[in-house]
Amino acid sequence: ALLLCDAGPRAMKMLRFRSPSISSLAQEVRCTVRLLDDSEIACSIQRDTKGQFLLDHVCNHYSLLEKDYFGIRYVDPEKQRHWLDPSKPVVKQMKCQQPYTMCFRVKFYPQEPIKIKEELTRYLLYLQLKRDVYHGRLLCPFADAAYLGACIVQAELGDYDPEEHPADYISDFKLFPKQSLKLERKIMEIHQNELRGQCPALAELNLLQRAHTLDTYGVDPHPCKDFTGSTAFLGFTARGFVVFQGNKRIQLLKW
Question: What are the start-end ranges of the E strands in the chain?
Answer without folding.
Answer: 12-16, 28-34, 40-46, 70-75, 81-83, 100-106, 222-225, 231-236, 240-245, 248-254
